[in-house]
Amino acid sequence: MKLQQKSTESQNSSAGNNEHSNNLKPFITSDKIQSRVKELARSISSDYAGKIPIFIGVLNGSFIFISDLVREVSIDVEIDFLKLSSYGDSKISSGEVKLLKDLNCQIDGRDIIIVEDIIDSGLSIKYIRDLVLTNNPSSLEFCTLLMKKGLSNLTFDIKYTGFEIDNKFVVGYGLDYAQKYRNLKEICILDP
What we know:
- By secondary structure, the protein is α/β, with parallel strands linked by helices.
- The chain has a single domain (31-166), classed as Rossmann fold.
- The chain is 26% helix and 28% strand.
- The chain has helices spanning 2-12, 30-47, 63-72, 123-133, and strands at residues 24-28, 54-59, 78-85, 98-101, 111-119, 139-148, 160-165, 170-171, 187-190.
- Strands 4-3-2-5-6-7 form a 6-stranded mixed sheet, with helices on both faces.
- Helix 2 crosses helix 3 (63-72).
- The termini are far apart.
């Protein structure tokens, strides 16, 4: 059966058995991530007290972060997802953002928080911002686990940032390289 074959193949390509596993350098521990997620959740809960924002996760990378984040907020939230592509299986952005999955919910007049795993080039987040603003939300903010330093092309603020990092290629905690390493509990630098 084809599904079983794929399942077996993906089990064999876990981080520990991958040809790049020796090139992983620990960067942000699981404990530091969880502590920061709780801090972000407290800030969001305070800022949105009495409101029910829609968290929009950007797939696939944000799925672990958004799962942990929504379990830590003390307010009611709704959740939806967008899926974009700008990397494929490369470490370098193609420079072209493609929408692969659109929203299911109506966002007109609603408070929106876009939840990203990482903002590195700024292309995807600008694309999302423009897309969401055409649907007239009441408010729009961004929450990212990681943001690379020195993004001069961003013309708007990112209100909630977990960690600001140097320009390194990172994996783990939902971030991948060619669909690998998402399952790591910590964030690692992947060296060539």
